[in-house]
Specification:
elongated; alpha/beta; 7-stranded antiparallel beta sheet; Thrombin, subunit H
Length: 440
């Protein structure tokens, strides 16, 4: 039943309060002022006092304005008609596409999937980024952040993954993006011809701050519907630190006792509630989450990346414009390496990283003034080739071709007995004497 109240008891920031009964947490309301009608959501119940967060901001709202409760929480439209469309944080179209009000709608922000309906991750999502596919594969239904300092090309990496990943549906949630960043995302997806399988929920820095909180929930609610219908869905979020900052602003407006650096004490559970939407449905599709988490001051102990690391299954660490091999980790890669992927994958992965670590040690030794040996020169050559062929974000290559390139790189710098790979793999794949498989 739709009920309207005629008096707002307090306004603090973007939070307003009214006296009301029989209202549930998360319910939507329309706040009607002389200038406009704004959408708001119930964020706290204290007896008969109801606190609402006004998505467009409380500017222009007075205590004499009317509040009408709508009887349902935030909803997102669901259907194939969503594909190729761009929406704002509230789910309203930003493009010139047709009206979708006649399509079915699904409630936003529900609980995570029942563990009984989850299955052990078993799929591999190829991204054509060698530092991901070869060394830390993205596993279907995994949740992974990209840890990066300001200025790193994390949105470029996210775009690359979104364009190249072998997923049925890609959902991009932009949180606090600069307008030109949004345009770059859209232009890149259009140029690559993948916009028809993509849905975008975009909040720009000029939009009301509180709308940032809606973007992950809208993206993940839609992803659930596609996943249940059998689609392999990849959700890209940028940036979850902006999402956490919006939560901090709301918590301060509600006079909550702050925790570390002013963030609410619920930061961990608020982040986990979103990341735990990643799932492989039994007998249906899956949801995989790749989310940017910027680190203020490149500080991995900052509350947002620190809490994120306890929730997710590893991380990609972007530093100096490349995916750093020693800071990145995919804890689920053992579920696909060598079983879903080619049999030599694990051997190439381990050997190449071990030898690259040795090349870094050689660089440090020479920097301290030690004399260079012939072995040192080989490791330095290997380090240069590794960077150019695998770490450079411009490299676009399929997994099997990357594995073959790995064998080629090892053979150019070392003898078979120096790479630490068992003889049966050497016999099968070493260039010139094996059956190396080519193709993407």
């Amino acid at each position: 039943m739709i009920v309207e109240y005629t008096q707002i008891t307090s306004i603090q920031g973007d939070i307003i309060a009214v006296e009301a009964k029989d209202i549930r947490y998360g319910e939507l309301a329309a706040v009607r002022s002389r200038l406009r009608t704004s959408l708001a959501q119930v964020i706290r119940l204290r007896g008969n006092e109801v606190l609402l967060q006004v998505f467009a901001g409380a500017k222009g709202i007075s205590t004499g304005d009317r509040v009408r409760f709508l009887g349902h929480p935030m909803q997102v439209t669901y259907g194939d008609a969503m594909l190729g469309r761009v929406f704002n944080g509230s789910g309203l179209p930003l493009d010139a596409g047709p009206d979708l009000r006649s399509y079915p709608r699904h409630e936003v922000g529900g609980p995570s999937v029942n563990p009984v309906k989850r299955i052990i991750p078993r799929g591999f999502i190829e991204t054509r980024v060698p530092m991901i596919d070869v060394f830390n594969p993205l596993v279907e239904s995994q949740k992974l952040p990209i840890f990066a300092a300001a200025g790193e090309p994390y949105n470029e990496l996210l775009t690359r993954v979104g364009i190249r990943a072998n997923a049925d549906v890609v959902i991009l949630g932009g949180i606090g993006l600069k307008h030109d960043e949004y345009l770059k995302f859209r232009h890149a997806f259009e140029e690559a011809g993948v916009l028809p399988r993509t849905v975008m929920f975009i909040h720009t820095a000029s939009d009301p701050v509180v709308e940032r909180l809606l973007v992950p929930d809208m993206s993940l609610a839609l992803a659930e519907q596609f996943g249940v219908s059998g689609k392999r869905v990849l959700v890209l979020l940028s940036d979850m630190t902006a999402f956490a900052d919006a939560m901090k602003e709301v918590a301060i407006s509600m006079d909550q006792v702050p925790s570390n650096l002013g963030y609410p004490g619920s930061l961990y559970s608020d982040l986990a509630a979103r990341y735990e939407k990643a799932v492989d449905f039994e007998g249906a599709g899956s949801i995989t989450i790749l989310a940017v988490t910027t680190m203020p001051g490149d500080d991995v102990t900052h509350p947002v990346p620190d809490n994120t690391g306890y929730i997710t299954e590893g991380q990609f660490y972007l530093k100096n414009g490349v995916v750093e091999p020693f800071g990145s980790l995919s804890r689920l890669k053992q579920l696909v390496v060598g079983s879903v992927t080619r049999e030599d994958h694990g051997y190439i992965m381990n050997s190449m990283i071990r030898l690259f670590a040795r090349s870094r040690e050689v660089e440090q030794k020479l920097a301290m003034g030690f004399e260079k040996t012939e072995d040192d020169e080989r490791f330095l050559k290997y380090g240069r080739l590794f960077y150019d062929r695998f770490m450079d974000l411009k490299v676009d290559i399929g997994l099997n071709s990357a594995l073959d390139l790995g064998w080629k790189t090892l053979a150019e710098c070392f003898n078979p007995d120096e790479v630490g790979i068992k003889q049966s793999m050497i016999d099968g794949y070493w260039p010139g004497q094996g059956r190396s498989e080519f193709g993407d």
